[in-house]
Design goal:
This protein is mainly α. The protein has 2 domains: about 10-145, Ferritin (Up-down Bundle); about 165-315, Ferritin. The chain contains 9 helices and no strands. Helix 1 packs antiparallel against helix 2 (about 40-65) and helix 1 (about 10-35) runs antiparallel to helix 3. It starts with 9 loop residues before the first helix and ends with a helix. About 35% of the residues are buried.
Amino acid sequence: MESNKNKLTSIEIGSLWSTYMSASLSQRVLQHFTEKMVDKQMRQIIEYALDLSVQHLQSLEEIFISEGHPIPQGFTEEDVNAGVPRLFSDTFCLIYVKHMANYGLRNYGAYYSYSSDQRTLNFFEQALQKTIKLQDQSTKLMLDKGVYSHAPYFSYPEHPSFIQDAKYYLNIGLFTNDRPLNAVEIRHLYKSTITNTIGGYLLLGFSQVADSQEVRDHMLKGKDITDNQRESLNQKIKKENLDPPSFPEFEVTDSTVSPFSDKLMMGHVAFLAGIGISDYGMAMGQSQRADLIFLYGKLITGAQRYAKSSADLAIKNKWLEQPPQFPDVQRSQ
């Protein structure tokens, strides 16, 4: 019987596969970003992010080859159109990279913690270190450029305190706000608002340039969903007498020439939908007001419906690559 001692586990394969797909997507998007950027400081950040994606892909391919595992197709040169007009402003590109680095750090940390293979551990450790550098550089430049969106400040408590009334936790009407938000709840509201804002601008740009009318309509539908969800989050923030996150004027140009294939744009939409659902689930689990839990449940439902329709459209066009999976032993018998 063949020993599995030196083989990668299913979790490790899944982690490496997912990382390959996201890195190949990032490489193609960042190729377009760097082509037309004017601000030299911002361009350096984007070029560093692009180099990271290329390095990740090379390392992952080496692991897959050594394992005798097929290399995912991901997104290729065929999914990018070079030399076309720019679609997004420099500032949007910088904030986009900062936002994507956030999710890289979260995913790499999780993937590392569930790995035991030394090659896999080394890869995710290095990915974490390099993405931390990207995060630090992009954050510093956003602060220097005055485009970093700060969450609200509040007075520090004089000492730790403990909850005195069981009504603090969940025992509040679904549509009331009988106690102020705590810092953890504010964090999730702001983070989800930022995700929807960035996603909305990305979807707007994609809706202008998609080749297929069906894909254009799907992008506009997604833009409406992100706008509505962002407004729901902002209303909750405003009811607490807090200011919603502020953003610079992102620019989506008037270009109608696509820098990306419809396949790539639909893949990016699926990635964003997954991020949104994940964020809402985490927010729901860490919020202690019933009205917030109700809100996140509603937002998850809307995001899941859009994710399903996105998958249906991608499958229809044979764009959706299947993750590695166990053989269906029962059906093969």
